[in-house]
Design goal:
This protein is 96% helix and 0% strand. By secondary structure, the chain is mainly alpha-helical.
Amino acid sequence: MDCQPKMDKVFNLKQSEILEQKLHMINKISKMLRIKILNTFVNCLLGLIDFLISAQKLALQLVSNKY
């Protein structure tokens, strides 16, 4: 009978370790997703800047051909 509280304590410690590992993995995945989203956003901005530069060059060509 006195063995049961000790077993419960060991079980609770193991459960606590498992939950801690899961929380650590969730935090890692969350960080990876934030980096991925930020990377996508930066790539979109770079694409937009590239598009605007190309549009500006085209506009300059059209204006210089007109005059």
